[in-house]
Structure prediction request, 278 residues.
Amino acid sequence: MATKLEKMILNKNMICRKYTTPNRPHSHNLWELVFFEKGETGNIVNGVEYNSKSGDVFLIGPPHVHAIKFITTPHLHRDLYYSDEAVRAVCDCFSSDLYQKACSGEVLHFHMSANAFQTVLRQADKLESLSVIASTNNGITYDELKKISESLLHFVIGSYRMKMLTNTSASPKWMLDILLYLNSPENFTKSVNDIIAGTYYSHTTVAAAFRQYLGVTLSEYLINLRLDYAAELLIGTNKTALEICSAAGYDSFSYFIKQFKVKFGVTPHKYRSDSKKK
Prediction:
């Protein structure tokens, strides 16, 4: 059941919106996930100006006063909006102090890799289209949109967390090597045992490292990669759901369907058909 705030987000079509104009200093009760797509921009948060370009991502919380000014044009940025409860839940998946960090004066921001950024934009395009359909009461529920939206937030915060790990000596190099290795579908579709066998470390050691530095198990990390990949194939190819199941590394079609519904709230068939609606 959607809360009052969630209904307001849906009714105002605020789940995902594109902007081509600057905005004045403001704050609000929602969390704002900002993707800069075109142009060079001054993103001003709490009086600090961040020079931003395509691929830059910011997570801006209710305490932060923020504004956008153009440095070059044309300009395009996209905002996704979240309740405080949703952001806290996703942050807690990765680190016990990540939410507090996001609430403090230290704004979460980073530059995404080109491939990761394109994945985010494809999901945002789908979310934007579906939110318009849902606002007309055309059979798509807020809960379905919420699952896709929070999945995207989870992907972004996970990417941020991994970026921070690669910029610090705190995490072991062998774990960073695993994360880089798992960037490819050829590798993240392998079994957990095969992946661990290539590290020369025990299952216990690898599992503990993933839990400590990413806040998830290796299996959970792989599931997210595989399902995001499956979602990309559903939108970007004509492969059947059964073919995509196999391509994403699943042996059981029924198990694939079950996990896909848990993550996205709909079956692969409905996910594809919804993406074609405008």
